[in-house]
Design goal:
The chain is mainly alpha-helical. The chain is 63% helix and 11% strand. The chain contains 4 helices and 2 strands; from the N terminus they run αααββα. The protein is globular, with a radius of gyration of 11 Å.
């Protein structure tokens, strides 16, 4: 997992989405628009080189890479 070009802002957004399990709730809690939040998560996912979330229906779940990034960012 290449973490060289990610930003603290992207990590905060990622952790908020992971905690809330919702892009909309995370956007509200961070006072961001949902499209802005989604773009940051997409850029972070591209930086990591793997998808961080999987959407099944209306629910989102962390992928294996998402779990690794969450653990690493909490450290």
């Amino acid at each position: 997992m290449n973490l060289r070009h990610l930003t603290l802002h992207q990590l905060r957004i990622f952790l908020s989405v992971a905690q809330h399990q919702s892009f909309a709730k995370a956007a509200r809690s961070l006072h961001l628009s949902p499209p802005t939040l989604s773009l940051q998560v997409k850029q972070l996912s591209e930086t990591v080189g793997q998808p961080l979330f999987e959407q099944i229906g209306k629910q989102i779940y962390l992928t294996a890479a998402g779990h690794q990034l969450a653990a690493a960012s909490r450290d």
